[in-house]
TrEMBL record:
This is DNA-directed RNA polymerase subunit omega. The lineage of its organism: Bacteria, Bacillati, Cyanobacteriota, Cyanophyceae, Oscillatoriophycideae. The keyword Transcription applies. One of its GO terms (cellular component) is DNA-directed RNA polymerase complex. Promotes RNA polymerase assembly. Latches the N- and C-terminal regions of the beta' subunit thereby facilitating its interaction with the beta and alpha subunits. The gene is rpoZ. Pfam families: RNA_pol_Rpb6. Belongs to the RNA polymerase subunit omega family. Keywords: DNA-directed RNA polymerase, Nucleotidyltransferase, Transcription, Transferase.
């Protein structure tokens, strides 16, 4: 019997956060590249870690960056 694991994130929430990032950015291309670079970096940094295998690196990057946008007390690595 195969049990589906419920994702710890809502796709509509990810879309909302991505739109927040795009709205706050002066340059849509630049923010897109920053998300891609962070996702790539996180993918290689956490290759051995099994933090949340259901969450793709790009989704994790969007969530992290939107948190940094809405919570300035979080230290940014941009």
């Amino acid at each position: 019997m195969f049990i589906h694991k419920r994702h710890s994130f809502d796709s509509s929430q990810v879309m909302y956060r991505a739109q927040e990032l795009l709205d706050a950015a002066a340059n849509r291309y630049r923010i897109t590249v920053q998300v891609a670079n962070r996702a790539k970096r996180r993918r290689y940094e956490e290759f051995d870690s099994i933090d949340d295998p259901a969450m793709k690196p790009t989704v994790r990057a969007i969530i992290e960056m939107s948190d940094e946008l809405t919570q300035p007390e979080i230290i940014s690595d941009n």
